[in-house]
Amino acid sequence: MNVAIMGAAGFIGTNLVLGLLKDQTNKITVVDEKKEYFVHYSEVVASKLNVIELSFNNEADFDQCTKNQDIVYHLISTINPSTSNQNIGKELADNILLTIHLLESCVKNGVSKVIFISSGGTVYGKDAVCPIIESSKTQPINTYGIQKLTIEKLLYLYNHIHGLDYCIIRLSNPFGPYQRPNGKLGAITTFIYNALHQKKIYVYGDGSVVRDYIYISDAIQAILNIAQKNTKHHVYNVGSGVGISINEILNIIECDLGLNTDVEYIEARNVDVAVNYLDISRYETEFGKLQSVSLKDGMRQTKEFLKGGGL
Description:
Elements: E1 2-6, H1 11-20, E2 27-32, H2 43-46, E3 49-53, H3 63-66, E4 71-74, H4 88-108, E5 113-119, H5 143-162, E6 165-171, E7 173-175, H6 187-196, E8 200-204, E9 210-211, E10 213-215, H7 216-227, E11 235-238, E12 244-245, H8 246-255, E13 262-266, H9 281-287, H10 295-307
Helix pairs in contact: 1-7, 4-5, 6-8, 6-10
């Protein structure tokens, strides 16, 4: 199968590549803004990939990336939840117009299916009742969630007009190998990394914020299951189905991972909802059990990866 991954150099993209390479019949094209972003791939992995350098802006020409592709994975986002709402017009324009160019190219080149990694943490907003089902009301409180939801609607539109098949994966909070601990996403990875290196851990609010965390290998397997089959639905929640607070995460780091933490609680952010965890029954009814790696085991594996200098 010919597969293209847009935004392939990041955390999810890297793990997706490794998952796709397990099937030797896959021919994989990876696309990101600079080829140097792929330096963390081993020579063996890199030799199996077609690498395309493309600036992700409103003039991006996706034709070279989508030609002869069966499946296109859309992982591009120029913002994240913590940096959203700072320049609302630009944040929305950058991501929505970029997606329109990508979808036009997919239609032009006869792509069979688009897989979009949306956000289970932001598209639903603050009024959703947990565990959140896919049909819940969507009322994002930040531009990250709004652009994700708008792209979902664009996929519906292009399917209606052009017959472009698609699946939307509303992903909770993945963590694990290749996640940057100095980035703006990934509380678990960042906290473990900081604890390992005797760095201060900053927590927004009082630590009572509840989220749904999923180890990256489970997230990738779920994504591949959805992408490679004729699904009953266009939208799936992917997560653990369980909510856990930031303070509970810190407790696991200390009590189960045996690491000391230096925590400082700082002012809460208005882009965060208090409680968010997903109902994953739609996925599990169709594909079976989603989570195979427990939270604690995933955190232990993340600790070992970070100790081994994996980043």
